[in-house]
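S., here's the first fold you wanted:
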Amino acid sequence: MIKDNLAHVKERVKAACMRSGRNPDDVTILAVSKTKPAEDIMALYEAGQRDFGENYVQELREKHEKLPSDIRWHMIGHLQRNKVKYIADFIEMIHSVDSAALALTIEKEAAKHDRVIPVLIEVNVAGEESKYGVTPDEVPELARVIGDLPHVSLRGLMTSAPLVQNPEEDRAVFRKLAQLGVDMNLENDNNVKVDVLSMGMSNDFEVAVEEGSTCVRVGTVIFGARVYG
């Protein structure tokens, strides 16, 4: 069932790309596996899935240690500075950089492992009080800070749109993030090149793809409802 769900998501992404004149190969499907057991992750792994997203550092670390080493783990949840050290040696990308202080901590921990960690700036486009992220106006300054860090590579932007009944209501949010990326590339400060837009989740990923998303973070439509406890 999980493998079938993944195949269905791929077809929906492909259809959204066809509608918007895009290449489906330009969109990464990030399987959000938080709270899901290793068996479920392995079922997708056997179907060829390699990119997985986690929200919590402890869970991410535990899964990294017990699952195949070629899985590309993405940190998509809010990241506390004192937790960076636990994932700095292996993380594929951090999607949730929302302060200069966090970026500087990532720099310090990445340097210890002599590696460059790709990151995205988390942007609270809709201005929701319940969401993390910088405002769109704060993006250029944070981008300049990250651009000066030798062990951190700014690859793009991430947002979480409001949870709405009609995904069309989120189109403007995705469009604004995409425009932010265009503006950053035009300014070309510190040779930053935005080529990743992490936007779109289970309820709205097709609209996000139509608006330029290069990475959709989908969990429920692949794994089913999450189990907490």
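And the second, which I think is the more interesting of the pair:
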Amino acid sequence: MHNFLSFDTRGLYCRAGGFYLDPRLIVNHAIISHAHSDHAVRGNKNVYCTAPTAAFMKKKFGSKGEYHVKDYGAKFNIGEVSITLFPAGHMLGSAQVLMEFEGVKYLYTGDFKTVADTSCEPFHFVKADVLYTETTFAKPSFAHPDPEQEISKLNNYSGINILIGAYSLGKAQRITQLAAQHCPGKKVVVHSESVPFHKIYESFGYSLGNWVRYEKNLLKENDNIIYVVPPSVYFKHADSKKFLKTFATGWKQFYRSNDLRLTISDHADWRELHALIAYMKPKTVFTLHGDGSRLKKFFAGQAMNVVMLNGKQKEESKQHSLSLFSDENTFR
């Protein structure tokens, strides 16, 4: 059980199946949980993923390689391992990966959240013996507020345009939909970098509400606009007084640069992690993508074992959280 998945230079490897989960480098067989660049790289020969993830990756990387598109709940095999994808709730097309081998069930969450989000498929709780989970916000201090209440705070501001930083894939679409639903008196404008992904969302039947593509003179004609932009554009306006500036993120240390806090994250907080573990009752939990030390300490001495699979998690998490704002994956 403890050797089913392990890290090597390319990423998280399953020897029994001969495949990688969200590899960092090019491999022959890659199961991709979702299309963010810290989980999906260009050039894998065989990619196993959902239809939306394939669409996003083809838009970002082109069609090189063979895409094996899988429906949620449909079992398939790679090598000796039986695999089923289930919704992860992180963004459209995001998937948890359930792997079955020699009578043991292993679940890899990828990035996930369990809170309601109508811009993507809802999280699906899955039973398994072993859990491999992200721990991006695995501290008791992280308790994300209701996203609808957060976006509704923008209704308190008038006479000024609002600039919202949100990475182009996943967060920009969620913010667009939330703003369109809960800020009806404002016009939602979307930067051109996000527009192709908005259209892919809508092609899969996910309405994002009323929004328009940014045009050069649009902001001069209106003072009641919500302008959704990627990080690189957001920080070009860092010193501008023309906007009320905010960034949709769960990272508390980044609120200092904003005029307003907008705590909207696409990752599970401390409560959501515990709800997942309580439901699954796994025998072992392996922590990934963040600092799992608090989770390990919380369950110390109990029947369930918590293992920090990547021993450098804590330092990597610190460096990740302090990285440049231009990195789309910083803003979770």
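Why I say that: Residues 171-182 form the longest helix (12 residues). Residues 147-262 form a domain with the Rossmann fold fold (CATH 3.40.50.10710).

Talk tomorrow,
H.
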